[in-house]
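**Backbone description:**
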Amino acid sequence: MGSVTRQQASAWDFDAELRGIDCAQLRRRRRVVDAYDGTRLRIDGREMSCFCSNDYLGLAQHPALVDAAREAASRWGVGATASPLVCGHSRAHDELERELAEFVGMPRALYFYAGFPANAGLVPALATRGDAVFSDALNHACLIDGARLSRAELQVYAHADAGDLDRRLRASAARRKLIVTDAVFSMDGDIAPLRDLLALAERHDAMLLIDDAHGFGVLGPRGAGSAAEFALRSPRLLYMATLGKAAGVAGAFVAGCESAIEFLMQRTRSYIFATAAPALVAEVLRASLRVIGEESWRRERLRELIAMVREQATLPAGWRLGTSTTAVQPLLIGSNEAALQAMEALWQQGFWVPAIRPPTVPAGSARLRLSLSAAHEPQELRRLLGAIAALRLDAPRG
């Protein structure tokens, strides 16, 4: 075969693809952070006030967690060396799983090195050809990709619409039925109707897998999460949460009944075939669980900040505050261009609030995603709200 000539069009024209991304105002820019100090970040020598982090409880730099990391590195080193089913499952991992299960009030837990591969592996372990996966329309990409990988029939029900889900479940002749949903939706901050979803799972012989990435540590008694918030208990419930957000560290876990978790340990490819997280991460997470349970003032501070946004935010014309009552507060704008303008205007004033655009959110719903943390001081949030209220942006072009 001869080489492609200059006159021939190539299917691998990355420059053309990037031009298309730019025309749609969808190019992402990666910032390099030089230093962290709570909600203050230093970028290219400039100090920024960060409202883009998922560190909802302000634990990522907590002294107890830092001390645990030092001690664990001395004991365990820095690598797990193998998958959990070979020699990567240490005593630290084992104790973490026991403590996670106890923390969320479930019989058993299984720890994963990261959240995305956890869901991308859990869904195919639970459903395959001949089965059906029922997925909320606004689910996170990891649940969507897991459903696609499963090769099961994918049914997308209207966002948070238990009635639509009920109709789809009743009409399905699938061998097994799996309902998957975010608990707190990552871009809107609203909460799924979890009680209704679990009732439907029990009525239709289905399993319910909830992803509580943005609820664990924040909602429920002692921060035990969305399932605890709504007192959900059922052998048909599988509770998954990530540990790099409110917990301030890294990884994820799934909890449920003993037999379900044993089955998932045996069948989840992203658990079986991946090197385990280092034992030092497990030890730091154990310290994080203790802080989450003991330092309730962090959740109280977060609730105060959420109320401040709900009660005091004054938005530019055409903007709308989402309905969220959680730490994720979306400021809905509409066009990609206007969202980017708003982000840049706030950046110039020292505030980092990210513009969220498709495909992360539906077309026409670009927004600023305001992420609150217990590490934010109220006056810091007041300054941001004042800057937002004073924004004067150009009208978006055609």
Q: What stands out?
A: The longest helix spans residues 279-294. The two ends are 46 Å apart (CA to CA). The chain has 15 helices and 15 strands.
